[in-house]
Design goal:
Elements (H helix, E strand, L loop, with lengths): L3 E9 L3 H15 L5 E7 L6 H11 L3 E5 L5 H11 L2 E7 L3 E3 L3 H11 L4 E3 L2 E4 L25 E2 L9 E5 H4 L19 H11 L4 E3 L5 E4 L7 H18 L6 H27 L5 H26 L1
Parallel strand pairs: 1-2, 1-4, 2-3, 6-10, 7-11
Antiparallel strand pairs: 4-9, 5-11, 6-9, 8-10
Helix pairs in contact: 7-9, 8-9
């Protein structure tokens, strides 16, 4: 079999209402392209996802669908690893949709660069409306990847829902099945851990601003409870997902980093407040999220030291 240039994978779990939009955004771009395929990994969905996928595969020769019975996003991504036919494997979240030039921009990056892993930004889209205080940056990875040009990431990672990986990397690494989303249980960082391990092996990771997708933000994520829950999980998982060695020096670094982050965020928000770009509620949330994250990061290092 002739190897394709690019395989695009959508891993999905009970998101049929979004999956159709996601698939359509890709199909519009790959129809007529012999070098690109779309694969869908159904991770035990209990809605009508399976019948939808089977009908798609019958109607489109460049779509293949698989049922992965081991529950968890890392299991689904590892199944994609077994099934894809391309030189590159791109992951797209099932509750996102690709920008109109997403596929073309990916192919251009592949053709003109020597990257091992790359990805781009995701910006929010809203189906159920947006709270007045909620800022678009809250639903975007531009908050921690604020780059306007192609940038090599040494300490940071691209987001798993918009991530493209070369076959050379995938032949050496798999996704850790103890990390990542599992059904409706929230967990993060399987892609961060994957990229950390890839960097340890000498592979290069890049952020490319033109590789843009739009990611759904429900009303349930536009509340302080969600912000705190996410910061708690990310803080607790930071040590393992970044493969950080626990030490008393690391505790000292966390104190310094948290102090700097909180002070710089408050200074930035003060300037935005003066300009009328943020309100006091935004300033309160930003502080609470940073404090929660670093408190749990600090505690996880202490627990690892015991």
């Amino acid at each position: 079999m002739t190897r394709l240039k690019l395989s695009i994978c959508i891993c999905t779990y009970n998101r049929l209402e979004f999956l159709n939009t996601c698939v359509d955004s890709v199909l519009k771009q790959i129809n007529g392209l012999e070098e690109v395929e779309l694969i869908i990994i159904n991770n035990n969905s209990t809605d009508e996802t399976e019948s939808y996928c089977q009908n798609l595969a019958l109607d489109n020769k460049n779509i293949r669908c698989f049922l992965e019975k081991n529950q968890g996003l890392s299991h689904a991504r590892n199944r994609a690893k077994k099934e894809y036919h391309g030189e590159w494997l791109a992951f797209l979240d099932d509750d996102a949709y690709a920008s109109s030039d997403w596929v073309n921009n990916i192919l251009n990056v592949i053709e003109n660069n020597n990257f091992d892993i790359f990805g781009g930004p995701y910006d929010p889209w809203y189906k159920d409306g947006k709270e007045s205080w909620y800022k678009d940056i809250y639903g975007s990875n531009r908050m921690w990847l604020p780059f306007n040009k192609t940038t090599r990431l040494l300490d940071k990672s691209v987001s798993g829902g918009n991530m493209i990986i070369n076959r050379n990397v995938l032949e050496k690494l798999s996704f850790d099945i103890d990390k990542g989303m599992n059904g409706y249980n929230r967990s993060y960082g399987e892609e961060t851990y994957f990229q950390t391990k890839a960097k340890d092996l000498g592979f290069k990771v890049y952020f490319v601003p033109d590789i843009l997708i739009f990611h759904f933000v429900p009303k349930s994520k536009q509340c302080i409870e969600y912000f705190i829950e996410r910061a708690t999980i990310q803080g607790n998982e930071r040590v393992n997902n970044k493969d950080i060695d626990a030490s008393y020096f690391m505790l000292f670094k966390i104190v310094l980093k948290s102090t700097y982050s909180i002070l710089s965020k408050n200074f930035s928000n003060l300037l935005k407040f003066i300009k009328g770009e943020v309100g006091t509620y935004n300033m309160y949330i930003d502080n609470l999220v940073l404090i929660t994250y670093y408190k749990n990061f600090f505690s996880s290092v202490i627990n690892k030291l015991k």
